[in-house]
């Protein structure tokens, strides 16, 4: 793939520009909404807080929402890039591992049988469900001769996802009260999330970010082909296991906070490779920034499309991502 940014100086400039765009979108997310505020209100909310609606909206709603969108977008972008590299599947998303379905199943199960109603509890339950589902898929995809292969991982994820989805739908059918409580979360949303929820998963997030940067060079070697990687002395089984664990950590923490948001991990790696080529060290950085920019922009759009009401952010990402998915699939068919 021919990169549009062909040298280190251009790639660093691109990172700087994306960072500025991300900061601008955070500012727009904090300042604009149903309650009219400006940059002075944003500053005074932390320096001269007086309990007004403007200050409360900024401190308790908009700043946490913007930060959650930033972190979750970066997580999904990096997880998608790693997943596409691991499975060698250009349309791979975190849903392929059954992570979204597993987290949803655990949330609905906890509500149905244990009447859990704490948002913080939802975070940890969803994270646990996502992690266990990812590990189960990875284990199933590694059974048999030859160990883990992209097709076995894909089939295992589809099978486990379908199973979890059917059980989830069954519980929702017989318990309408649970449906009302989790419908907005199941659609994916960063609204109503607190900084405490984000801080609860940040240690995992940081481990995932650092791990993805450390393993980027090994991913470059793995992309040359498994036989070549082994010939160069790489222990491919351990590299794949590390990649899988990082994906589970990043995707699980994202689902735990914001619910199952689709297509971010599909779109951003393609855009990153379009800009910087196949060097995974750059792809990781660009996927993270593009993921944040994409999710922040989608969240702002979700608020303004139907103002004063708002759409779940998952609806907006699906609206943008579905045509892109079709484009990638048809592009692959034409090449075939």
UniProtKB/TrEMBL annotation:
Annotated GO CC locations: plasma membrane
Pfam families cross-referenced by the UniProt entry: FecCD
CDD domains for this protein: TM_ABC_iron-siderophores_like (cd06550)
An individual GO BP term: siderophore-iron import into cell
Gene3D superfamilies per the UniProt record, alphabetical: ABC transporter involved in vitamin B12 uptake, BtuC
Transmembrane segments annotated in the record for this chain: 12-35, 66-86, 98-116, 122-141, 153-174, 194-216, 237-263, 283-304, 311-329
InterPro entries the UniProt entry points to: ABC_BtuC-like, ABC_transptr_permease_BtuC
GO molecular function terms noted in the UniProt entry: transmembrane transporter activity
Subcellular compartments: Cell membrane
Statement: the UniProt record of this protein carries the keyword Transmembrane helix: yes
Signal peptide: none
Bilayer topology: Multi-pass membrane protein
Alphabetical UniProt keywords: Cell membrane, Membrane, Transmembrane, Transmembrane helix, Transport
Family that this chain belongs to: Belongs to the binding-protein-dependent transport system permease family. FecCD subfamily.
Protein name (database record): Iron ABC transporter permease
């Amino acid at each position: 793939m021919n990169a549009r940014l062909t040298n280190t100086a251009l790639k660093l400039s691109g990172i700087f520009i994306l960072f500025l765009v991300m900061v601008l979108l955070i500012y727009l997310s904090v300042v604009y909404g149903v309650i009219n505020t400006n940059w002075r209100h944003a500053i005074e909310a932390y320096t001269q807080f007086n309990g007004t609606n403007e200050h409360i909206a900024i401190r308790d709603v908009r700043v946490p929402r913007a930060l959650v969108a930033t972190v979750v977008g970066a997580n999904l972008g990096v997880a998608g890039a790693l997943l596409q590299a691991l499975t060698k599947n250009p349309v791979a998303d975190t849903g392929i591992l059954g992570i979204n379905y597993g987290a949803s199943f655990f949330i609905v199960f906890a509500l149905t049988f244990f009447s859990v109603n704490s948002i913080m509890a939802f975070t940890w339950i969803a994270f646990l469900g996502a992690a266990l589902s990812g590990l189960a898929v990875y284990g199933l995809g590694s059974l048999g001769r030859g160990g883990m292969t992209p097709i076995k991982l894909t089939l295992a994820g589809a099978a486990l996802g379908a199973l979890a989805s059917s059980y989830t739908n069954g519980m929702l059918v017989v318990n309408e009260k649970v449906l009302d409580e989790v419908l907005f979360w199941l659609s994916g949303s960063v609204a109503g999330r607190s900084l405490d929820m984000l801080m609860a998963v940040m240690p995992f997030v940081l481990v995932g970010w650092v791990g993805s940067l450390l393993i980027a060079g090994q991913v470059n070697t793995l992309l040359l082909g498994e036989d070549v990687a082994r010939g160069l002395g790489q222990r491919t089984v351990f590299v794949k296991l590390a990649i899988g664990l990082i994906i589970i950590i990043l995707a699980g923490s994202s689902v735990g906070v914001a619910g199952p948001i689709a297509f971010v991990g599909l779109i951003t790696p393609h855009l990153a490779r379009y800009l910087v080529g196949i060097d995974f060290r750059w792809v990781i950085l660009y996927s993270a920034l593009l993921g944040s920019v994409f999710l922040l922009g989608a969240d702002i759009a979700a608020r303004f499309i139907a103002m004063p009401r708002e759409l779940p952010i998952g609806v907006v990402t699906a609206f943008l991502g579905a045509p892109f998915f079709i484009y990638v699939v048809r592009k692959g068919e034409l090449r075939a």
